[in-house]
Amino acid sequence: MGYAGALSVPPVFFHLGLHDWTAYFYAGGVAAYWYQGLQDMKSNKAVKRNFPVLGNLRYIFETLRPEIRQYFIEGDQEAVPYSRANRALAYQRAKGMPDMIPFGTRRDVYANGYEWINHSMHPTKLSVADMRVTFGGERCTQPYSASVLNISGMSYGALSDNAVTALNAGAKLGGFFHNTGEGSVSAFH
What we know:
The chain is mainly alpha-helical and 189 residues long. It has six helices and two strands, in the order αααααββα.
């Protein structure tokens, strides 16, 4: 493209004349193309070196990628770490604008896999037995009962002494297990 551009400069001047500014604009564009191409050929980036001038498009698109994805590809409810709807809500709150959206939701509540919670006028009462599982079969000499709700593994180093003591007290009151995480049992367990 550089050679074609350079070879076409004299015919452009001949056709448009020396007094037409567009001929000089065209020649300046060809000169800029050649300058950028020669700079790219000396670049330490392989994409620019192998594809002078054209390789710059990769870096331009890489810079524009978040905006292209945000405005043209992603939906209102998807994105990491925050969806477009959550970002809009944060912007509205930061500007002191009303952040309520009346009359329903934009989510497809009839889609397969959509989860929601219904309020109940008469909630059911679960027995403690429903929240426990017995481990050990008929031939087991020491079967034991364990809760289905337990405290997951958090190492002592990630928590304070008071946190470990409080979690342990809650586990004792609820009758369930407390996983100590990577560490062993400390004096506070």
